[in-house]
Amino acid sequence: MNDPFARLPEVPSFTVTSDTVKDGEVFGAAQMSGLFGVPGGQDASPQLSWSGAPEGTKSYAVTVYDPDAPTGSGFWHWAVADIPASVTSLPEGAGDDTGSGLPEGAFQLPTDGGAARFVGAAPPAGHGAHRYFITVHALDVEKIGVPATATPAFLGFNFLGHILGRATIVATAETPAA
Fold this sequence. Notes:
By secondary structure, the protein is mostly beta strands.
């Protein structure tokens, strides 16, 4: 059912968890988008911790993607590149306007909302439940080599020759019809 990884090469999985949201559960108000007008939304990126990445991992990237957005191409809510291999967690809110919770050397790319930050969930009213694929990508390079102005899709394209593993949890959100 519209799995964003279905046509990509299979890679080993490892573990990602969150104190903010559990796999298959609904995002809290903090992860909803006040920027897009959701009452109580705070656009706070979820806390993430990961372990068990494949041997040879030299960096990580984190993405949050909604394949259910009514755009024909989904909606990228967050993309972070060049997280050092020594880092295995990000605090809640790391993806603010300044990336204040990101480790040195890591950077955020512009989302489909136009800002280089985490943009919370804001599914259209009555459109049904949306899924948010929160993914940590283990890579075999310290720097993925994309500019900070690149799109998350371009970042993902550049993973192809460098991906060693992938860890994903899926959150959901829905805005009831008025």
